[in-house]
Structures are given as C-alpha cells and as structure tokens.
Design brief:
This protein is mostly beta strands. The protein has two helices and 17 strands. Strands 1-2-3-4-5-6-7-8-9-10-11-12-14-15-16-17 form a 16-stranded antiparallel beta barrel. Strand 11 and strand 12 form a beta hairpin.
C-alpha cells in the first residue's frame, strides 16, 4: 500500500510540472492544478509522577487541488505519516455565491475550530471538546471517524453580502450536508441518516463571526444490547464566536452532545443502552507580531503568543471533568517553515497531581 502511494506521489508531481504549460494556454478556462503538502515533526514530553517523551512524524500530507473549470473545483489529500490514508477526496460545483454542491469525503460542517487546517490551528492540539464531539477522537470510539471528516453530500453558499467599511463582506454563510456517519474511508452503510449544518453570521462588525452548528445521526453500537438495539444516537450542538482581523484572534465555543452508549452490567453480564451527555467549552486568544519593520513586498517572519482555557466533561451527569490551561508560541520564519511550542497543565482531580505536557513541532511546507 505504501508503495502505491509513493508511486502516486511521483506521478502527481510529474503531472504538476507538465500542467504548468497547460495552465498558461488554458487560463481563460480557469483551469489550474496545485500540488503541495507539508510535514509535521513533533516532540512531546509528558510529566506527572515521572517523565515520558516521544518523537513522531505526526503528519505527512500530499495535497492536490485545483479548478477544472470556472464551475468545478476538486481536492484530493492523503496522509502518509503512520499508514497511508485518504483524508480529502471531493468535487465541488459552484453554481453561484448562494449555491455550491460538494460531494465526496471532507470536513463535516460542525463548529468553528473543526474547519481549521492544522496549518492554521494556533496550538499543536485541538481543544478537548472539539476532539470528542467534532469527529477527531470521538466519544463513540469509532476509530475511523477521525480528522473531523466524513463521506457525504453538502450544500453551501453565501445568502447575503454587504459592504462593511468599504470591504465587500459575506453576512450570512451556510453549510448543510448528509453524511454516512462512519467516518473517513468507510462506505456509508446508512446513507442519508446523519445530518450536519452550520450557519455563520457577520453582524455588520468587521472581522467578527457568530456561528451555530448542529449534528444529528446515529452509529452502529459495538455490542447488541439486551433489548436488541444496534444503534446509538448522536445529537450535538455548538455555538461560538470568533474575531480575527489578521493580527488579533479570539475564538470561543460551547459544545454539547448526547451519545447513545452500550453499557455492560457486571452482574447480569448484558449490555443496556444509556445516553451519555458530554459538554465543554474553550477560549483561545493570540496576537501576531512582525519580526521585521519593513516588508518591501517580501515575506515577513512573524510570531504570536497564544493562550487557551479548555474545559471538557465526558459525562455531564457526574463524571470527572478536565480543565486544561495552555500557553504557546507560533513562529513562521519563512513561508515554508513554522515552529510551534505548546505547554499544557491541568490538575488531576483523582490524584490532585498536576499533569504537564510540553509539545514542540516543526512544519515544513512544499
């Protein structure tokens, strides 16, 4: 399998060079293909009663995207870090600003942070509640439901636009889709059963976005319950706000979810269906600083400090909650080179000990 991906990468790179001349001759038809990607190398140090550390290549992405015409664009992205897997594979038809139809495998329209690329994420990890309820490390335990993506069909567009301080701004954006519910690289067994949608509003305040999201669906339980149930529900809601003017960034969200779980009765040794309510919220703030005074039309190295408050409880009915306090720094030395350093601390409620985690990551784009 790895050999196939390596061969595919070589072929795509060759085609990319061949298409350079084709793009020039067909520019009037908006034909364009871009081939790129990035590699994340990471070091992590954890400390509680004792220290443990690890090195890993966290991501090794090959990304191919482009326009086939003024109407149609596409994206195909693969990750080869641990085992080769397809991340994105979709085609989109943009009929006008109000309607675009997208089909394939892509990020579900849920929450503000989920739509961010790892290249745009401020810290080295997502907030806890985003990982648990937006399809990264899902509370259902579905291993393949990762990277915030699924296979489906989605409509999206801008309903209203207006001029704010001389800049044409989208006032209302929407995304609504039907998904298989099994995650990436899994054929939908229950096509059309899962729905997800997001509405984003810019309330005539430049750089401010208000967002509301909802997800409704189900998943196949790993065990059949005593009553014969084979499916557990997934209901999730998210509200949030973000201000980003290119320098200052502040984002906060609250997420809530109800998940049907099969629980084992230790006395009868049979499974029963119960609803698990999870919730969490986070606030992230950062500010960019230039590392040079003048740009002269060239890339200016930049750096920003980041702070995040991060709360999550898997079982809101009385389970243990976790509050993480994050501090970090992100630095782009060149367009192709980024350094990130994140420090996380939280108090273990069971042992009253403090857990510390230091993560350093280097990103190289190509």
């Amino acid at each position: 399998m790895k050999t196939r991906f390596i061969i595919l990468a070589i072929v795509l790179l060759i085609l990319g060079r061949v298409n350079t001349s084709a793009q020039e001759s067909t520019s009037r038809n908006a034909y364009k293909i871009n081939i790129g990607g990035w590699i994340d190398g990471q070091y992590r140090l954890n400390y509680n009663d004792e220290a443990s550390s690890s090195f890993q290549v966290r991501r090794a992405r090959l990304d191919v995207k482009g326009n086939l015409s003024q109407l149609v664009d596409f994206r195909m992205q693969a990750d080869m870090a641990s085992s080769p897997k397809l991340i994105d594979a979709f085609v989109r038809m943009r009929f006008n600003k109000a309607i675009a139809l997208q089909i394939g495998q892509f990020k579900i329209p849920f929450s503000l942070e989920n739509i961010l690329s790892p290249l745009d994420l401020e810290l080295t990890d997502n907030a806890q509640v985003i990982s648990a309820l937006s399809g990264y490390k899902d509370v259902t335990g579905i291993a393949s439901y990762a990277n915030g993506r699924d296979i489906g069909l989605m409509l999206s567009g801008t309903l209203f636009s207006d001029e704010i301080k001389g800049v044409e701004t989208s006032i209302v954006k929407y995304d609504i889709g039907i998904f298989g519910g099994g995650g990436i690289n899994v054929a939908p067994a229950r096509w059309g059963k899962d729905l997800s949608g997001r509405v984003s509003i810019t309330p005539y305040v430049q750089h401010l976005t208000l967002s509301a999201s909802a997800y409704w669906g189900s998943y196949i339980l790993p065990n059949v319950t005593a009553a014969g149930e084979t499916k557990g529900e997934r209901k999730r809601f998210a509200v949030g706000a973000q201000y980003a003017d290119g320098r200052i960034m502040m984002r906060g969200e609250y997420l809530w979810g109800r998940t049907g779980m099969d629980l084992l009765d230790e006395i009868t040794n049979v499974y029963s269906l119960d609803n698990l309510e999870s919730q969490g919220c986070y606030i992230t703030a950062s500010r960019w600083f230039d590392m040079k005074k003048t740009a002269d039309g060239q890339f200016v190295p930049k750096i920003r400090p980041i702070l995040r408050w991060d709360y999550y409880t898997k079982d809101a009915s009385g389970g243990t909650s976790k509050t993480y306090y994050w501090a970090g720094v992100e630095c782009w030395m060149q367009k192709c080179l980024r350094f990130q350093l994140s420090y996380r601390i939280h108090k273990d409620e069971l042992t009253s000990n403090f857990d510390h985690c230091l993560t350093a990551m280097t990103t190289v784009k190509f």
